[in-house]
Amino acid sequence: MDFLLSIYKWLSDGLNFILPISLVVVGFFFLFVTKGVQFSLFKVGIKNLLSGDANKSLDDTNISPVQAFMTGLASRVGIGNIAGVASAIVIGGPGAVFWMWFAALLGMASAFAESSLAQLYKTKNAEGQFVGGPAFYIAQGLKLPIIGVVFSICLAFTYGFAFNSIQANQIANTLHANFGVETHTTGIIVTAITAIVIFGSLKAVSKASSGIVVVMSVLYILIGIAVLVVNYQNIIPAFESIFAGAFDLTSGVGALFGHAIAYGIKRGLFSNEAGMGSAPNIAATASTKHPAEQGLVQMIGVCFDTFIICTFSALIVLTTGLWDKNLYDNAALTSQSVVASLGSWSSIAMSIIIFLFAFSSIIGNFAYALSGLKYFTQNKFVRFSFTIAVCAVVYIGSVSSPTSVWNAADLAMAVMTLLNLVAIVFLWKQVKLIIDDYKRQLHKKAQNENYEIVFNSDLYPVLRDKLYHQSIWSRKLDEEADDGIHKTSGYKIFGTNDTENHR
Question: Does Glycosyltransferase show up as a keyword for this record (predicted)?
Answer without folding.
Answer: no
